[in-house]
């Protein structure tokens, strides 16, 4: 029967899932960043890591707080042990059975740690532990922000490329039509028509490629945002406006403070962890002191009648103090301390190396950003020149004063200038994001 009902249920589930309405989203770049910081899968898990770290911190703290444990032990002798005794010392043993067949013991123990050096170190370590996960969250957010900016820019690049290619295609088709008419009248050679047809085929191929690229770029952005790739998404910012907003000439002129860099902060956390590990090993040479109070109730009977009103219970209580003093470990503790010291020294060296790499990364990112700004200005000017050259060559070609090869060269130069200009705008946005990620002025 289960097989009979499972297939219709499966089909129903698939139909419902297929008919589930798609979500509609519309974002500016800043809105997309804010949304991704809340919904990106990595951001969600890094937030969970902080919550887990908070619970770990409390777990460590609770180890030094009062602990209460209770238990119940029930024993039922299926066959009671027999004790032999020779009271007359004549070699004849008499058999005795001591105790009852059944007994029960209920007890509760309150314990309290009074002093433990490793516990004190652990409390200090919880702060570093929390700092690490908070800084790791910030690093994840910075990565997510950069990914969203880059993927947002790639979508706009694909859309702008398609728009320009469509304009180029429309203009070229008109020129090709006029050229074919001129060829029919015998005023030009067929080679001129063929050359334009080659250029048109190239544009169609680029248009098809960018259309597929746009779909991939949208899906990548959706993944970075943390939404379903089949949901509807529209972007409201324009590439030109975003580029102008990211032309911050003062950004690369300010002094770089490495203390703000998130990788440097994580390196400091790692170094502090190693220092605390040294302290932990040293603390193991200190004595530990704890105390406990125990209270118990016991009852005995040959039958299970412990809950009867006539059952007699015997109580007991115990107060104790436990002191453990490490005296000699055959230099094992000293060896572990030296290992921790070596790891600490390595962490300090790693931090120095990381500092130099971060400074180099800053200089490289700063140079890339300044270069992208320069390239943007150059590409913008080159595009204007390429447009004028192409327009002049088109007039000459139409009037028969220029060959199709000259016109084709001018067209290729224009198409290249258009793509360089679009790419230069995306580069300004992406290189600024990379520079801001290193600077991390939060």
List the strand order in the largest sheet: 2-5-7-8
Taking the sheet with the most strands, its summary is: 4 strands, antiparallel
Per CATH, the architecture of the largest domain is Up-down Bundle
Mean pLDDT: 90
Taken together, the total number of domains comes to: 2
What overall geometry do the principal axes of the alpha carbons give?
A: elongated
Number of helices: 9
CATH level 1 class label of the largest domain = Mainly Alpha
As for the CATH topology of the largest domain, it is Outer membrane efflux proteins (OEP)
Radius of gyration: 40 Å
List keywords for this structure.
442 residues, alpha+beta, Outer membrane efflux proteins (OEP), 2 domains, two-stranded parallel sheet, 9 helices, elongated
Please describe the topology of this protein.
Blueprint: H1 2-18, E1 24-27, H2 29-39, H3 41-62, E2 67-76, E3 83-85, E4 94-96, E5 102-115, H4 117-184, H5 190-225, E6 232-235, H6 239-245, H7 262-283, E7 288-301, E8 314-324, H8 332-398, H9 404-439
Parallel strand pairs: 1-6
Antiparallel strand pairs: 2-5, 3-4, 5-7, 7-8
Structure, described:
By secondary structure, the protein is an alpha+beta fold. It has two domains: 23-64 and 116-286 and 327-439, Outer membrane efflux proteins (OEP) (Up-down Bundle), CATH 1.20.1600; 81-113 and 295-325, no CATH class. 65% of the residues lie in helices and 14% in strands. The protein contains nine helices and eight strands. The chain has helices spanning 2-18, 29-39, 41-62, 117-184, 190-225, 239-245, 262-283, 332-398, 404-439; strands at residues 24-27, 67-76, 83-85, 94-96, 102-115, 232-235, 288-301, 314-324. A four-stranded antiparallel beta sheet has the order 2-5-7-8. Strands 1-6 form a two-stranded parallel sheet. The protein has a two-stranded antiparallel ribbon with strand order 3-4. Helix 4 runs antiparallel to helix 5, helix 4 packs antiparallel against helix 9 (404-439) and helix 7 (262-283) runs antiparallel to helix 8 (332-398). The longest helix is centred in the middle third of the chain and has 68 residues, at 117-184. It is elongated, with a radius of gyration of 40 Å. The two termini are 62 Å apart. The model is unreliable at 1-6 (pLDDT under 50).
């Amino acid at each position: 029967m289960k097989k009979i009902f499972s297939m219709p249920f499966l089909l129903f589930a698939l139909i419902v899932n297929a008919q589930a309405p798609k979500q509609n989203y519309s974002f500016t770049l800043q809105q997309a960043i804010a949304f991704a910081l809340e919904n990106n899968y990595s951001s969600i898990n890094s937030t969970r890591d902080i919550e887990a770290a908070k619970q770990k911190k409390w777990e460590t703290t609770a180890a030094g707080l009062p602990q209460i444990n209770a238990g119940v032990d029930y024993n039922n002798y299926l066959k009671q042990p027999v004790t032999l005794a020779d009271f007359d010392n004549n070699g004849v043993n008499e058999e005795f059975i001591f105790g009852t067949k059944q007994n029960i013991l209920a007890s509760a123990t309150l314990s309290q740690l009074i002093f433990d050096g490793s516990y004190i170190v652990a409390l200090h370590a919880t702060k570093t532990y929390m700092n690490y996960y908070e800084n790791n969250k910030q690093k994840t957010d910075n990565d997510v922000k950069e990914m969203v900016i880059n993927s947002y820019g790639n979508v706009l690049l694909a859309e702008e490329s398609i728009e320009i290619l469509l304009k180029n295609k429309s203009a070229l088709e008109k020129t090709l039509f006029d050229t074919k008419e001129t060829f029919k009248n015998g005023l030009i050679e067929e080679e001129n028509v063929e050359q334009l047809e080659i250029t048109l085929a190239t544009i169609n191929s680029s248009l098809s490629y960018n259309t597929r690229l746009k779909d991939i770029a949208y899906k990548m952005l959706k993944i970075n945002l943390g939404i379903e790739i089949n949901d509807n998404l529209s972007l409201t910012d324009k590439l030109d406006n975003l580029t102008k907003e990211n032309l911050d000439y003062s950004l690369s002129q300010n002094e770089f403070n490495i203390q703000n860099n998130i990788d440097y902060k994580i390196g400091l956390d790692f170094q502090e962890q190693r220092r605390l590990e040294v302290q932990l090993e040293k603390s193991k040479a200190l004595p530990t002191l704890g105390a406990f109070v125990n209270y118990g109730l016991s009852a005995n009977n040959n039958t299970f009648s412990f809950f009867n009103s006539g059952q007699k219970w015997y109580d007991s209580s115990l107060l104790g103090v436990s002191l453990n003093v490490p005296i000699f470990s055959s230099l094992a503790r000293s060896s572990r301390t030296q290992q921790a010291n070596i790891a600490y020294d390595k962490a300090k060296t790693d931090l120095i190396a990381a500092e130099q790499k971060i400074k180099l990364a800053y200089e490289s990112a700063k140079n890339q950003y300044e270069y992208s700004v320069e390239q943007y200005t150059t590409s913008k000017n080159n595009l204007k020149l390429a447009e004028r050259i192409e327009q002049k060559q088109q007039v000459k070609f139409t009037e028969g004063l220029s060959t199709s090869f000259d016109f084709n060269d001018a067209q290729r130069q224009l198409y290249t200038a258009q793509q360089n200009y679009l790419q230069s705008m995306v580069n300004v946005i992406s290189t600024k994001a990379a520079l801001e990620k290193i600077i991390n002025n939060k």
